[in-house]
């Protein structure tokens, strides 16, 4: 192998390593700085108790079922909700403590928006629960209703 081919081969190996490292880092963290976690990882975070659990759905959705210990701050008016803008997350980010934050909604779309909003507001430990409470319930994890009774809404 001549010197020129050896240089090309070395450059190709280096390029492969850089691409590999980029893709492995993007697995956990999106370009917005939000880290996506599975419901299993989210459950572990909740069980450790060192996380602020933020539900960004509507009050109606929250009252029907939510993860025990969650704080409701809606990110937007969805599902027919008609909250004033001062009750939504953008106006209430100061209510979110400077600690690890786990954000969830019904399926993960609104929580991703809310998580990005929090990162843009200066929060650094923001975790989006992929799949939302739907995936949480599908995994068989418990939820509570507005009556504060544990409810098993998992599907058999």
How many strand segments? 7
First CA to last CA: what distance?
62 Å
Principal-axes geometry comes out as: elongated
- Specify the CATH class of the largest domain: Alpha Beta
| Main beta-sheet strand count, sense and barrel state | 5 strands, parallel
Summing up helix and strand content along with how strands pair, one would put the structural category as alpha/beta
Total of helices: 6
The name of the CATH topology of the largest domain is Oxidized Rhodanese, domain 1
| CATH architectural category of the largest domain | 3-Layer(aba) Sandwich
The strand order across the widest sheet is 1-5-4-2-3
Description:
The chain has six helices and seven strands, in the order αβαβαβαβαβαββ. The protein has two domains: 1-30; 31-146, 3-Layer(aba) Sandwich (Oxidized Rhodanese, domain 1). By secondary structure, it is α/β, with parallel strands linked by helices. 42% of the residues lie in helices and 13% in strands. The strands form two sheets. The chain has a five-stranded parallel beta sheet. Strands 6-7 form a two-stranded antiparallel ribbon. It starts with a helix and ends in a 5-residue tail after the last strand.
Question: How are the secondary structure elements laid out?
Answer:
Blueprint: H1 3-28, E1 35-37, H2 39-48, E2 52-55, H3 59-64, E3 71-72, H4 89-92, E4 101-104, H5 109-120, E5 126-129, H6 132-138, E6 143-144, E7 150-151
Parallel strand pairs: 1-5, 2-3, 2-4, 4-5
Antiparallel strand pairs: 6-7
